[in-house]
Fold these 2 entries.
Entry 1:
Amino acid sequence: MIILLDTLLVTLILTGFLLLGSSRLGASIRISALQGIMTGLLPLALEHGDLFSYVSLLGVAVIGLKGYVFPRLLFSALRESDTSREVQPFVGYMASLFFGILFLMGSFWLDTRLNLPVHSSSDLLVPVAFSLMSCGLFLIVARRTAMSQVIGYLVLENGIYCFGLAVVSGMPLLLELGVLMDIFVAVFVMGIAIYHINREFDHIDADRLSALKG
Amino acid sequence: MEMNTLSILNLLAGLILAPLLPGIINRTKAVFAGRHGQPVLQTYFDIFKLLRKGAVYSRTTSWVFRLSPVIGLAAVIAAMTLLPALSAPAPVSFAGDLILFAYCFGLLRFFLVAAALDTGSAFEGMGASREVQFSALAEPALLLGLAALARATGSLSLTGIFSASAGPSAGPALALVSAALFIVFLAENARIPVDDPNTHLELTMIHEVMVLDYSGPDFAIILYTSSLKMWALGALLVNVLFSFLPLHGPAAVACVAGSMILLSVLVGIVESIMARLSLLKVPQLLAGAVAISVLALTLVLRFTS
């Protein structure tokens, strides 16, 4: 069980690196969907005993939302916006990967400093959560299109979810479903926002919105 | 005494079978393309044909040009003497020999590049510049991967690393190191997706362009050196992949040699189904390999602390 869990966590970090290095929006959406499925599988790999039915229900909900619904929404937004399929970074791909490595080492260092009351069987869960959170924040800051910012937000949320899994024992189901609902609404609203930005300005470049005059 | 014969046997297997690898790669590619292809032993034929011919030297070249094939061959053979076959020890081993292993290839590359610059051809200079640029990125990936292995097994020599078992908790780290080493293997041996060995005289090539001025026995040595280099780096990868197998004695040597053949079939498949990456994307791929190695090292540090 522990080897399955560790493999899942390592794959999560690798998908984070892939997102930092990929130059196509379509590929980014697919990788973030894969990452969502991985995070959905995480609670199933953790040992929970009598809570297993709740946990598997939550896992299925997460996989359905992050692996199917969100990619569908993002792809349809991408199709309708009909703009460049490039990611258009502020920070280059090589430099982004370098930052990803720094975040990874930083998260492992932070984890040794914090001494969190961790309930998980794997001591990788917390550093992976920190590294995903910082990757997500970096993607939001360092990419130009609104689409990449949505993807960065999803990665950030995956990190928070991992952190919750590590720290909270027994998984309050209602709370997690509430969080899922929040992201669902957020992605929905962002999809509409992307559509409107695109219809008004013929692009989804969020950076150029700052040059608007009232 | 028995272990000594085994290590010599391992070294000899490498020295004799290495030119088979390019032949197997070409045959795999031919089968994928529906052709019959050249004989599997073609590299041997090429080497023997070239050894019978005379060498032609350009008047602009100096002693560096004539010296570099020999030094390259010596460096690669030195690296191969450090390489064990799973639990069968290498002929030479001491603490820290993994760094010597990595920098034997550095010496080979330095003299190849120096000889390419020595010819004064702009074309070869361009290839030399690319070779140095890409290997500067491949080298950290190789060294960090070796560092992760050394930390996981608590040994600083290649023989010690592959005779100790790392324990099941190092499984993900070993898989990551293998992935990084596979990318380094493709980059260092100038295979697709980094370089296409079939594109002679094109502006995108890297390795082949540096040896254009060699002829006769010198070129035979270069061909032999590059197949030995492929064997050495491939055997390192195979050792990492199968380090959990409890094989001893001749079975270990046979396992490494057999896996080398499988590895070259795999390289042939990769070359058949992938296109060469554009030159600007190659550093990204190699930086990815570095990131994978760093991740492996971080995991190992976490598990052994």
Entry 2:
Amino acid sequence: MRVVISFLAGSLFGIGLLISGMTDTTKVQGWLDLFGQWDPTLAFVMAGAILPMLVAWRLTANRRPLIGGRFPQKAAPELDCQLIFGSVLFGMGWGLVGLCPGPALASLGYGGVGGIVFLIAMIVGMVAAPTLGAQLDRPANAA
Amino acid sequence: MQPEWIWGLGGGLLIGLGAALYLLGNGRIMGASGILGGLVDGSDRSLERLAFLAGLIGVPFLLRPLLLPAAQTHLTGNITLVIIAGLLVGLGTRIANGCTSGHGVCGISRFSLRGIVATIVYIMAGVVTVALLRHVWGLI
């Protein structure tokens, strides 16, 4: 059951990314190109995606997931260096070529060699992240 | 060809439905960087995550010829840029513990401060990057 739900959720996510144009890097870079030919499509994608989730979060109140267990707890409203620094790095990479993790995966089957190279580099970055993240913590803890 | 915002909104709704199904069904937050990250760094190699990736990668590949045969990624041919961007996205999303799907879609809809701040920060970083590279240095 858990695996079937996972597969269906991944499939919906992937088709949504394809249809919305979010696997097209020119559209994504167009959204980020505020000082050029701005493309507002991504705002509609975000709004469309947030709507069902607004309902879903409401439905989690006093309920359990279908397969049992518990819903994930909401993170404490605390900001830290890792959240900000990590998001800056991510945004820079996103702007550079117009791919973020979801679309990079969804377009893997038709994105050519470049898409595969991006995915490999992204995986290398993901594996290296804990080492860099730990460096970030050090000065904060020492202070 | 309908206006592109209808495709954006429709595709967005499907993304949100996927996230809602993953949450209400499995009790999980649908974040692409978290799901892939856990698989590659070995922190969570569950079949659940593999099945998610199989749907995410396989279904668009199989359905693209039927739905949108003209869809392309238009990814830059500059492979150095692609590698740098991939490294930055991998590092950044794992350090910040989320990307457009986790912090953006799932976080904002929960009114999570961390999700909202992360989304504002990565969009701003992306806007500055595109502005500099496209309009100042002419690299992209």
